[in-house]
């Protein structure tokens, strides 16, 4: 059964919607529960397929997971067998690399499949492995797996300077270090909100992590983590995506359950493009007449403009007045989706890291595909802007990171629906 999204564009968005828990925090905090010697209850877990895959894998490893309600779960990992290892299915997602830190920290050994995730060209994990080695692990990569073992049975603290600002390496080293012997210092650490969230989770369970959110993170290893409660922060990129959609279609939308400070780089850019943004405590309101002006955007580590919003903002710029320059400074190859926007009448020229976007009066509906998670979100925005009907294929990418996107958008007036089509061969056989 082929599943597609069908959008009739050109409608302004109006109303309120609730932002879910942050994907990139959840997929680090959930495996971190395996470090806890007790029961931990985690709230505001987003219902997305990356989280489901992670939960399935933890269940296979022996974690006892209890669903309390739609967004809350309890984890009891006290009785994990010491042979726990990541199954091959984990290679579908990027966050499988967090099991290296978690299993090394918990058992002094780890076997984890090489991580997958969105295709942005080469995605090395050398900084993760450098960190684990500095903490006393022997690490090898063979048969598609990463094998790591603490040489003395347990990791020890170390000073680690990251050669590139890496979100994943910063969080992975934090996971490995929280139960290590002694003090670990991560220099040139990433500063994203989800790094602070992971530190807050570990500290709520009895860890000693300081400086998260700055470029130097210090972790004093503790003997044990104890159980407790934790609520994951709202998703900065999900919120940014709906803000961009409202700015481009025009309308008046309030997003509830957000931390406005996490959105500054995005809201500042949307204001520069002509939208109005109002902070309302833990909500944010955007109003726009849909007439945007051009702007230049460069992606950077937090607090700079996030690479995970690059496809969505570029899509808004396709109908802005004037020519914009977008520079992708985090990933080598994050413009795969541009060919889909060209089918809708966008004018974009890509040269390496740079995309030059010549704003057009409108986009027109077309059959496009979601090349990856955020590219998929960009296709939805394009469909909402465009005149006519847009269908989006390969929507499993979108479901990796957006909870109930169709329902949320319908709730603010979008004409979007999920279409399930029998594949052509099966349909022909049934008709025969
Ligand atoms: N890098 C290295 N070596 C490493 C690690 C990273 O050279 O060992 C480089 C990368 O090639 C890249 C840069 O450092 O050029 C930053 O990579 P980072 O490690 O920060 O990315 P990541 O941890 O693999 C996470 C998010 C991505 C998001 C990036 C940047 C997860 C699971 N993924 O990836 O999110 O784009 O940080 O903010 O947290 C998404 O949600 O759509 C997504 C792709």
Structure notes:
This protein has 432 residues and is of the alpha+beta class. The protein has 2 domains: 2-20 and 234-425, Enolpyruvate transferase domain (UDP-n-acetylglucosamine1-carboxyvinyl-transferase, Chain, Alpha-beta prism); 23-231, UDP-n-acetylglucosamine1-carboxyvinyl-transferase, Chain (Alpha-beta prism). It is built from 14 helices and 23 strands. It has helices at residues 23-32, 49-61, 98-107, 126-134, 167-177, 193-204, 236-249, 264-272, 310-317, 338-343, 373-385, 396-399, 405-411, 424-431, and strands spanning 2-8, 13-18, 39-43, 64-69, 72-76, 109-113, 137-142, 145-150, 159-161, 183-187, 209-210, 216-220, 228-231, 251-256, 276-280, 283-288, 297-298, 323-327, 347-351, 354-358, 367-369, 389-393, 415-421. The strands form 6 sheets. It has a 4-stranded mixed beta sheet. Strand 21 (367-369), helix 11 (373-385) and strand 22 form a beta-alpha-beta unit. Helix 7 packs parallel to helix 11 (373-385). The longest helix is centred in the middle third of the chain and has 14 residues, at 236-249. The radius of gyration is 22 Å and the shape is globular. The structure holds uridine-diphosphate-2(N-acetylglucosaminyl) butyric acid.
